[in-house]
Design the sequence.
């Protein structure tokens, strides 16, 4: 079978959709090497996924047009037709327009529809663009993959998609998340980032919906009981609001901001953390929760959300808007070593289900089922 992928995110996005895209392609190439895989990219800027192109079952197809955005959104379908692509998987919420020009079956992964549920986090223009692309993908794809049951419910609600058209397939861990870490690497990362011996960890873009300020306010409420907080993530203008709060109300808190950690660095940081705090207001799934769980790090995360699918029984669930519940959960894990140990074991057991073989099998079964219909 000739299988095509939108490789934009795999080539260019460091985390999130980039990790999902790379994991999906890597898993399929590893466990189903006899299929033919085509990575479609509007440009040749590939800093993150260069090694995959040397696999014999992979071919990268670059834009055949000088208008790269036009090629990605419309004219790449002509290349599908020339190459006789059997099935194309849009890995990040969208498919090109004009699909009727090729006989290619199409599958799209919808990661979230946060722009519909919480429009306040997006500009008007972005909401319009995301809505057009998502609606098109939902209508014209042969099958939709959702990354969580929560996302499936929201796609069905906002886009009136029937249950039968959607399959939930959880992602697997990125290849850089591993418990096999050398002592030298651990010491080097600890020294370079000046990490304390015991700390709480937050990982994610520092933006309003990720809710970091509530975590910091909860730590401020704990006063003498708090641990240092290590924050790993890309900054946005929300960081200024956080730093203003720290300056005005909590200068005594020890917060370490890391904006330049590579994948291997992040893996080490997870392994050193005492507790992982991920109380985002809304997510499509919450991959950082399974990354932390792999290292046996208990989590504090949001109840009544998709995070329950990601963290399983290895977490304490709270109202993410509640400073008191956040503080109470932190206090419990600091002061109750038996609870910490229990959640650590449950986290490791839960993380085992997110493996690349399971992902590859589920994706390939869906591809074959749709290609035969």
Sequence:
């Amino acid at each position: 079978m000739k299988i095509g992928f939108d490789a934009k995110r795999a080539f260019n996005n460091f985390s999130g959709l980039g990790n999902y895209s790379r994991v999906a392609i890597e898993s399929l190439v590893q466990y189903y090497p006899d299929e033919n895989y085509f990575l479609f990219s509007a440009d040749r800027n590939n800093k993150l996924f260069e090694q995959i192109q040397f696999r014999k079952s992979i071919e990268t197809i670059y834009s055949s047009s000088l208008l790269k955005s036009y090629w990605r959104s419309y004219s790449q379908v002509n290349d599908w037709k020339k190459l006789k692509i059997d099935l194309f998987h849009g890995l990040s919420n969208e498919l090109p327009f004009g699909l009727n020009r090729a006989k290619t079956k199409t599958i799209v992964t919808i990661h979230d529809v946060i722009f519909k549920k919480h429009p306040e986090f997006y500009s008007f223009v972005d909401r319009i663009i995301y809505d057009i692309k998502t609606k098109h993908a939902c209508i014209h794809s042969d099958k939709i993959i959702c990354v969580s049951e929560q996302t499936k419910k929201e796609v069905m609600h906002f886009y009136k998609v029937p249950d039968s058209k959607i399959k939930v397939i959880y992602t697997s861990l990125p290849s850089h998340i591993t418990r096999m870490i050398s002592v030298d690497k651990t010491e080097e990362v600890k020294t370079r980032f000046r990490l304390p011996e015991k700390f709480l960890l937050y990982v994610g873009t520092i933006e309003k919906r990720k809710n970091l300020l509530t975590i910091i306010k909860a730590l401020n409420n704990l006063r003498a009981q708090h641990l240092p907080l290590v924050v790993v993530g890309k900054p946005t203008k929300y960081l200024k609001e956080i730093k203003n709060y720290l300056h005005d109300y909590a200068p005594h808190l020890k917060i370490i901001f890391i904006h330049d950690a590579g994948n291997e660095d992040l893996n080490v940081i997870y392994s050193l953390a005492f507790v992982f705090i991920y109380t985002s207001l809304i997510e499509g799934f919450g991959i950082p929760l399974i990354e932390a769980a792999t290292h046996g790090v208990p989590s504090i995360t949001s109840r009544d959300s998709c995070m329950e699918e990601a963290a399983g029984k290895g977490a304490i669930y709270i109202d993410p808007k509640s400073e008191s519940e956040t503080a109470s959960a932190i206090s419990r894990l600091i002061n109750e070593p038996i609870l910490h140990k229990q959640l650590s074991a449950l986290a490791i057991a839960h993380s085992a289900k997110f493996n690349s073989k399971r992902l590859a099998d589920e994706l390939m079964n869906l591809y074959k089922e749709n290609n035969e219909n």
